[in-house]
Amino acid sequence: MYDHDGAPLRTGRAAVNGTSLHYRTAGSGPAVVLLHGVPKTGYHWRHLVPKLTPHHTVVVPDLRGLGDSARPADGYDSATMSDDVAELMARLGHETYAVTGEDWGAVIGYQLAARHRDRVTSLVFAEALFPGFGFEDHTALTPENVSGMHLWHLGFYFTPDVPEMLISGHERELITYMIKSERSHPDTASSDAVEEYVRCYSMPGGIRAMLAVYRAMLTDAEQNREAARKKLDIPVLALGGSAFVGERAAEQARLVADDVTGHVFDAGHDLAEEVPDEMAAVVLPFLAAHP
Q1: Catalytic annotation, residues
Q2: Strand pairing partners for 241?
Q3: Between 240 and which of 45, 84, 161, 245 could a Cys-Cys bridge form, CB atoms 3.0 to 4.6 Å apart?
């Protein structure tokens, strides 16, 4: 991963919140932390990073249990994972910062903003639904879901032991399918990204940690409903892909925040890999307006 000058990002590890996070950082200016989803790693942001680094200090962690971060036995609920990131940013000397998250990283980003309101200046909430506010509805086998957004894998991942048995030895097949099937532009699933994701999720504990994120959904639902009792007062930019979450991203964000702007791209689920230029054209002015 490279910055706008073509220089590799600096990498490091930080002991935070009882675990260890791998991170990359580059750039100068107001800080922004980028939180990836599943089954991805911080590498997901490789196209967006060089567009941000001329204007921002960018921090790209691999979330707890994912990428090259440590894989502890527990702590995969969104609140705990958000506290990991808050402690990382404090260790790196960033007192305040913007948060950009996608997929599970957006849910974790929301918890970060809700739990550390004196630290987070703005939130970009991309391609996500909240457990506790309708995410679970898309697991059901209904005509509407089958013809639209059927999140069949949520129930599968939540089942004890069976996913581990079936996925073991087939990490490449699963990750390639999930990455490509959720995009409008599957050709953007570049071989280097697929290889990186497969490498990380094939390591010892990789699939266990991935499943643990999903298996914390019911806890996440309780956390989200509790946090939403006091809406965010920071600006939120909610981004969707027309072929996946779409306008529902903004609808969800308005349940937890008062100041929400929405934007929908001609894309599927992975905006920063499918339409990075278009995403940057929306995100950069938003961040500049809310330093």
Answers
A1: 103, 214, 269
A2: 265
A3: 245
